[in-house]
Amino acid sequence: MCGIVGYIGSKQAYPIVINGLKRLEYRGYDSAGIALLDAGAFKLYKRKGKVAELDALATQSDIGAALAIGHTRWATHGIPNDVNSHPHLSQSGRLALIHNGIIENFSALKEALIDRGFSFKSETDTEVLVNLIEDIMKEESLPLDQAVRIALNQVIGAYAICVIDREQPDRIVVAKKGSPLVIGIGEGEYFIASDATPFLEFTKNVVYLEEEEMAVVQPGRSLEIRSIASNRMVDPYIQKLQMDLESIEKGGYEHFMLKEIYEQPRSIRDSLRGRLQPDKGLVKMGGVNEYIEKFNKAERIIIVGCGTSWHAGLVAEYIFEELARIPVEVEYASEFRYRNPIISEKDVVIAISQSGETADTLAAIKLAKSKGATIFGICNVVGSSIARETHAGAYTHAGPEIGVASTKAFTAQVAVLSLIALRIAHDRGAIKESDYHRLLQELDAIPAKIEKMLESDAQVLEISRKFKDAQHFLYLGRSYNFPVALEGALKLKEISYIHAEGYPAAEMKHGPIALIDENMPVVVIAPLNTHYEKIVSNVQEVKARNGRVICIVNKGDTEIRKLAEHVIEVEDTLDVFTPLLTTIPLQLLAYHIAVMRGCNVDQPRNLAKSVTVE
Ligand code: G6P
Fold it and tell me: How many A from CA of 413 to the centre of ligand 1?
C-alpha cells in the first residue's frame, strides 16, 4: 500500500507529482505529502486526508522546483496525521525520503539511533530509515547512494523508497524490495512511481526495478542500477508500455467502479481474445501449453489468493473439479504461508492476483516454489512482482482497475480460469468432445450476455433505493454460486459499510437463519440448475421467517418469482459459467447502495487496492 511518485528533469515537478499521486490514490488515501527541492532547500507540504487537500495546502505557497517526491499513505506505523505523513526529513534536514512498505526491525534501529543522539518527530518506521541513512553518510563520509545501500543491508522488511539530498540536487536514489517501483525514462528527465500510471502521458519507456535493486536516477546520465546486496551493476531492461491514458480515466462515468462494471463485456473479450477459438475447437494459451504436462500429471491444484481473487479461486475449484477432474484446494494466501503446508513437486499452485503485488500471495508463491511446486500466475498487472515470480502464467487483460472494490478483474479471472480448465480437461480427455465444444461456444457468448444484463441496471437501482438503509444483508448461493454469494457480500460491505455475509444456502440452517426477520434482506442467487429445487426450499425458509428476498433468477424461472419480493433476471447459460453473469447485478446493487449512502465508492475507508504489507 501507499503510492510513491518522483520527478527530476527540466519541467515543473509539482504538477507531475501531484497528478501522479491522484492516480495512485487507490493504493492508500489517508494522508499525503510532497517535498520539492529548489535552490538547495526543501519545500515540504504534508496533510492528513486526500491528495486534493494536500494540493490545496501546497498551492497556497511556492511550488516551483524541477525535483520533487510525493507520497499517498495507507497508515501502518502511526495514525494518519500531518506529522506521520511522508516525506520524512532526516534530523539535520539534509535528506527527504518516501517509503512504501514496512521496516520490520525499525524498533531496534530506532533505539540504536536514539543512543547516537537522534530524536524522532513521528511514529513511523520511515523516519528511522532516513535517519539511519543520514547517520551512515555522516559517520563514514559517504555519498547518498552508498549510504542508502549500506542502510538497506541493515533493514529487515519491505520497501520501495525514493531519497533526495539537498546537497546533491541532481539525483534521486531509489530502491526496491517487496514493494513495486518503476522508473520512466523521458528526454533528459526521469519519473518514478509505484506503477506507471503517473507518467503515462510523458513516456512509455520504463524499467521495473527487480527485487533488492537500487538505482541512481540522474538526468543527462543513463540509469545506474545495482544490486543492494552485492553492489554489482545490473543492465537496465527497458520495456515499452502498452497502456494508454484513456484506460485510466473515468470516461464519463461518475465513478471508476461503475465504469469498470460496464467494461466487463470488453474486459472478458480481451481476456479471451486469441485464446478461445470455438470454431477450431481450440484453447491456445502459451503458459498453459508450456506446462501442460505438469497440469495433466498434477495430483492436485492449490489455488492461493486474497479478497476477491480468492473468491475467483473458489469458483475455479468448482470448474476445475467438474471439467478437468483434478482435485483442487483453495487457500487464503495469508493462511497458507504461515502454516506448514504439505506441498510436493507434483502440485501445481495457481496464484491469483489483480495487482500482482499482494504481499501474502507473493510470500505463498515463494514458499510453494521452495518446495518444488510449479507456480502458475493469473495477474492483471503486466510485469508485476507475482507475474515475475511465477514459472508461467496467463494475464487477465482487464485493463487497469482503479476502483478499490474489484469488479472487472474478478470476472476476467474467472474467464481465464475457465479457459485453463477447458484446455486441461480436453487434454486429459476428462470431458466429452461434444460438451467441450458446447462449453467453448458458450464461453464465447458470455460477453454479449453481460451486455444484455447491464440493461437491468435501472431495475437494480430501484431495488437499491428500497434497501439502502438496511443494517445487514445475507447472500446465499449454492455450488458455483456460493462463491458469488461471498463476493456479493464482500462488495456490499467494502463500499457501503453495511454488514453483509455470504453463505452456502444450505448452511443457512446452521446459524444465519437465527438472524432472519422482517428487516433482513436476503439475496439468493438461484439460477435454474440441478440445485434449483433445493434453493427454492431455502427461499421458502427465509420467507417463512419474514425475510425480504431478492433473487437472481433465469428468465425461465417459475417458482422463485412467486416467492421473492424482487427478482433480477440473468441470461441463460451453462451452469459452470453462471458466476460470470450472476455477479453483475450484485456489483451494481453494492454500487448503487453505496452511492445512495454517500460513501466514497472508489476509495472506501480503511481499504487499499494493492496490499503490499502483510
Ligand atoms: C485488496 C483489494 C481487493 C483485492 C485484494 C487482493 O483487499 O481491496 O479488491 O481483491 O486486495 O488483491 P489482488 O491484487 O491480489 O487481487
Answer: 12
Residues 414-461 have pLDDT tens digits of: 999 999 999 999 999 999 999 999 999 999 999 999 999 999 999 999
CA 300 – CA 348 distance, rounded (Å): 7
Distance (angstroms) between ligand 1 centre and the Cα of 229 equals 31
Distance CA 447, CA 457 (A): 16
Establish whether residue 407 lines the binding site of ligand 1, counting it when its CB lies within 6 angstroms of any ligand atom: no
Q: Is the CB of 358 under 6 A from ligand 1?
A: yes
Query: pLDDT per residue over 134-184, tens digit each?
Result: 999 999 899 999 999 999 999 999 999 999 999 999 999 999 998 999 999
Cell readout for 165 is 539530498
Are 446 and 439 spatial neighbours (Cβ–Cβ below 8 Å)?
A: no
451-490 as b/e, with b when 16 or more CB fall inside 10 Å?
A: eebeebbeebbebbeebeebebbbbbbbbbbbbbbbbbbb
Index of the ligand 1 atom closest to the CA of residue 311: 10
Across all residues in the chain, what is the average pLDDT? 95
Can you point out the beta strands (E) in 85-212?
A: 88-89, 95-103, 157-165, 172-177, 182-185, 190-193, 205-208
Alpha carbon 589 to chain centroid distance? 21
For residue 398, what are the CA distances in angstroms to 462, 533, 568, 582?
29, 36, 26, 19
Q: C-alpha cell of 203? A: 513516456
pTM of the entire predicted model: 0.87
Whether the CB of 308 sits within 6 Å of ligand 1: yes
CB 213 within 8 A of CB 173: no
| Best probe residue, ligand 1, of 74, 609, 614 (max atoms within 8 Å of C-beta) | 609
Terminal-to-terminal C-alpha distance of the chain:
10
3-class DSSP string for 457-520: HHHHHHHHHHHCCCCEEEEEECHHHHHHHHHHHHHHHHHHCCEEEEEEHHHHHHCHHHHCCCCC
Does ligand 1 have an atom closer than 6 angstroms to the CB of 364? no
